[in-house]
Design brief:
Blueprint (H helix, E strand, L loop, with lengths): L1 E6 L5 E6 L6 H5 L7 E6 L4 H13 L3 E6 L9 H14 L6 E6 L1 H13 L5 E6 L2 H7 L4 E6 L2 E8 L4 E5 L8 H17 L3 H8 L10 H20 L19 H10 L6 H18 L5 H14 L10 H8 L11 E5 L5 E5 L3 H12 L1
Helix pairs in contact: 4-5, 5-6, 5-8, 6-7, 6-8, 6-10, 6-11, 9-10, 9-12, 10-11, 10-13
């Protein structure tokens, strides 16, 4: 059984979700003219999986190249990007060829940017292998790499032609990685679909098992939120006057600063969990949300097993990093906050005393 969700942007594509669906990859790749080349960009831990994906493609007369890149955020550098370009150039990749990003969110971010930048844009398919990759990075067309100054500061909007989420790969996912990915699912619950929060609260034991049907349902709901959101505002412009795609950045301004300060040794979902509690503290202090919704952040994230506090004494370093965030305009910090459950809004230029007070609340 599989679920197929359509991301209804100007160039619609399908997200296939289910167990044992890797045979769907060939259909998502589509057809090209002449000799068709496929580059599967993967981390070392995904080498066996990459070879399994390669076999049926070769049998179908495709020319397949396996491109191994470093694990995690270490892949998202200019040096690794240049390496990938060299491989594509040596293999003679043209605009009729395809990139496949196989792995977690860092790998699919990189693979998408390789595809966006090669010949000014070639097709690519994402095959995420983590919960985080499935519900966040693989869908929506945001691609990019990190720099010494911050995360995802260099990139492009470049949509995939398909996304393949084979839930079987989650069976071997370390518990900490499962929890990290569920942070992005919980985020979708707070900004758009409260039934996600209800599921977590009703079955906290089930969410620890990656083979649980509850986890499959949570992943599907999270992807559906992402698909609806990006379909309405692909380039994060909020053109109709609404918050649009920026809602998906809930918890990310502070969370990205934590990641950067920790040199990415903290998992993305762990940092975003802290970031969500931080902005909930801000929203409560400014009268946007009641205390029970602030408390619900801590209770739901606690059920998942995610962190909600961060180290004290480094406010200035975090504030400096946040000023480089993509949502910042000029010198004005902008945060996504809630104006009630599933009612995200932009908070621009809050008084620094409120920001410092909220930081004290999560670092005490």
């Amino acid at each position: 059984m599989s679920t197929r969700l359509t991301v209804a942007t100007a160039h619609p594509y399908d997200v296939v979700i289910g167990n044992g669906v890797q045979d769907e990859l060939r259909g998502l790749i589509g057809n090209g003219s002449g000799v068709m080349r496929v580059a599967i960009i993967h981390a070392p831990s995904m080498a066996d999986h990459a070879r399994r994906l390669r076999k049926p493609l070769v049998a179908d007369h495709l020319e397949v190249h396996l491109v191994e890149v470093p694990d995690s955020e270490q892949a998202k550098t200019a040096d690794v990007l240049t390496f990938c370009w060299t491989v594509l150039g040596s293999a003679g990749f043209t605009r009729s060829d395809v990139i496949v990003g196989l792995g977690g969110g860092a790998t699919t971010d990189l693979a998408g940017f390789v595809a966006a930048s090669w010949l000014r844009g070639v097709r690519f398919v994402n095959v995420p292998t983590t919960v985080l990759g499935m519900v966040d990075a693989a869908v929506g067309g945001k691609t990019g790499i990190n720099t010494a100054e911050g995360k995802n500061l260099v990139g492009a909007f470049h949509e995939p032609v398909g996304v393949l989420c084979d839930l079987d790969v989650l069976a071997s996912l370390p518990p900490a990685e499962l929890r990290s990915g569920l942070a992005e699912v919980v985020k979708c619950g707070f900004i758009a679909d409260p039934s996600i929060l209800d599921l977590v609260e009703a079955a906290p034991d089930a969410i620890a098992d990656p083979r649980s049907p509850i986890v499959a349902e949570l992943i599907t709901k999270g992807i559906a939120v992402k698909a609806r959101t990006v379909a309405g505002d692909l380039h994060e412009t909020g053109a109709d006057g609404s918050i649009g795609r920026e809602a998906l950045n809930y918890g990310h301004t502070f969370g990205h600063a934590v990641e950067r300060f920790e040199h990415y040794r903290v998992r993305h979902g762990e940092a975003i969990s802290i970031g969500m509690v931080y902005v909930a503290e801000i929203a409560h202090r400014l009268g946007h949300i009641e205390k029970d919704l602030l408390d619900r952040h801590r209770s739901v994230l606690g059920l998942v097993g995610l962190p909600m506090t961060y180290r004290p004494g480094i406010w200035e370093a975090l504030a400096t990093t946040m000023r480089l965030d993509k949502k910042t305009r000029g010198d004005q910090l902008r945060f996504v906050v809630l104006d009630g459950l599933a009612q995200p809004v932009i908070l621009a230029g809050p008084d620094e005393s409120v920001l410092v007070d909220a930081y004290r609340a999560i670092s005490s």
